Amino acid sequence: MSNASTNQNPYYITTPIYYVNDRPHIGHCYTTLVADVAARAQRLMGREVFFLTGTDEHAEKVVTTAKEKGHTPMEWATINAERFKEAFAFMNFSHDDFVRTTEDRHKDRASAYIQRLVDSGDIELGDYEGWWDGSQEEYVTETAAKEHDYKSPVTGRPLEKRVEQNYFFRLDKYEGWLKAQIESGAVRVLPEARKNEVLGRIRTGLNRVPVSRKIKPGDPDWGVVMPNDPEHRVYVWIEALCNYLTMVDQPDRRRFWPRDEPLAVHLMAKDILWFHAVIWPAMLHALGERPPATVYAHAYWIAEGKKMSKSLGNFIEIDTLKAYAEKYSLDAVRWFLATQGPLGANDADFAHARFVEVYNSDLANSVGNSASRVGNMVGKYFDGVMPKTCDGRFGFEGGRALQAALAARASTGKPAEGESRTFDLAALTAGAVERYRHALEAVDLEAAMGEGLGIVRAVDEFITYSAPFTLAKKFGQIEHAEGALGAILYSCAEALRIASLLLSPAMPEKTAALWRDWNCAHLNDPADPNSGFVAPLAELAAWGGAHSIQAGQGIAKGEGLFMRADAAEAAPA
Ligand code: MSP
Question: Is the pTM here over 0.70, yes or no?
Answer without folding.
Answer: yes
